[in-house]
Amino acid sequence: MKMSFDGIPIEDIFFSEFATLAAAPDCVQKLRELILQLAVRGRLVPQDPADEPANVLLERIAAEKKRLVKEGKIKKQAPLPRVREDEAPFGVPTGWMWVRLDTIGQIVGGGTPKTDRSDFFSENGLPWLTPADLNGFKAKYICRGKRDISEQGLQKSSAQLLPAGTVLFSSRAPIGYVAISANEISTNQGFKSCVPYIPKMSEYIYYFLKFAGKIIDKNATGTTFREISGKGMKNVPFPLPPLSEQHRIVAKVDAIMALCDELEARQVAQQETHAKIGTAALAALLEAENAATFDDAWARICDEFDLIFDTPENVTALRQAVLQFAVQGKLVEQNPEDEPASMLLERIAVEKAQLVKGGKIKKEKPLSPVRGGEVPYVVPEGWVWTKLGSITSFGPKNGYSSVAVDSPSNTKCLTLTATTYGSFNPNYYKYIDTDVENDSDLWLEEGDLLIQRGNSLDYVGISAVYSGPSHEFIYPDLMMKIKFPEDVDVHFASRVINSPVSRCYFRQKASGTAGSMPKVNQAIVNNLLFPLPPLAEQHRIVAKVDVLMALCDNLEARIRKRQDAQTKLLDSVIAEMTVQA
Prior knowledge:
It contains 17 helices and 19 strands. By secondary structure, it is α+β, with helices and mostly antiparallel strands. Residues 1-6 have low confidence and may be disordered.
């Protein structure tokens, strides 16, 4: 896309293309970053030869700094070296200068009074900020944070009372939050703030630091957390324009950022509208009374998919709706000639008893019967509510706790990622320095069901059917393996386990502390409520779900392809604007 820039206001160029570009992920954020980049390069507003040049402004700054030293308000410091040509990240216009941040403002840290001294804090004391107070803060000026400190707390800590107009910059946890103090304020040690020697420079410094935050973060150090030191902040190269041009830049950035806010609000409104339409569409699916009405609702979704489901996350919701519909018995028609599920349960019980008698499995503690008040929904005639442990022939059984080795070995052990997304991926495994007996139950065979017994709450309890060769992989300790008799379609079982109601069950039952991984045990897995259909219907449901999931894959691919194209277009427009500027 060829776009003119010279002589045309940048916002006119970008916003004329907004209808095309707005659907790109992070469109408005990228626009904000572009504006800041052009601003500090001197490419956002025209230069005026009549402006007092930066070298004269620098003399005024030096005189003010000398006055403050003479009055004892700041300490005299050794001058920092000039910004070398190879340090300047980009060229600046005639009349500008590269200087150190310390040259145009005093860099001041903060401190925290002892937290066990209640008299160091006050309900209506001196405003005191932590980086957390700027998390999500979008305004330019800030008055105070969540806590105030007392005069005594200020005196007994390294916190300092900073004047109004101080540019506050979080120097750790995280680096890069920026605001301007609207009044006298103090901060904790998570700040390296800039007190301008010329107060009228505050807003330009503010926008520069918003631009430079990521660059400063790259130069930070630390292991537990990254931090930029006071010396590091003092040495940050700063592009200094004439003061009059600073004011024009700030006014222009303010105006465009306000437009960005409007565009962002428009996007949010569009997303909310799409979300409501999508919710209604999913409700139509879940409220369908039979397979025929489901097919009608699905057809409407496909016809208007680009309007209803415009992000991959929305497709995830659609997948969950399909699974829920499937396990409720509304995805395919019931056949009264199918052998009812109650007979499957009888055969499974007989088969398990024979396996126990033959010494192939251990006798299990009987599971409590399913009570009517426990079931989350009514299943069709011919189905039966049971528990997962009642329909397995083996398991659940935990895997092997192993340590990875760097070089290939005789044993490959899956990692959690191999099953995290509900389907088996053979590319995620590690070699372990352990020989596993050929007859070990740890070896996986076609049709084994794997359940993640430990992971984040989003994934704990997720399942996948192993579809690789026999005896190629073992499974890890954070997974369980289950085998099913012929009367249970393992793919149907996996769909049930991954359906919304089951996912909710595992999230509620998972245990773990703030510092440990949520986990489920074998008893929790065995007691999962399971809606069991006739075997023939299980097969029909699996076939229908496979078709619908394939359609979801195609729809999701379309979205990602469209988003990739929009992102490339947006990036090319921004790159061209940057170059032409």
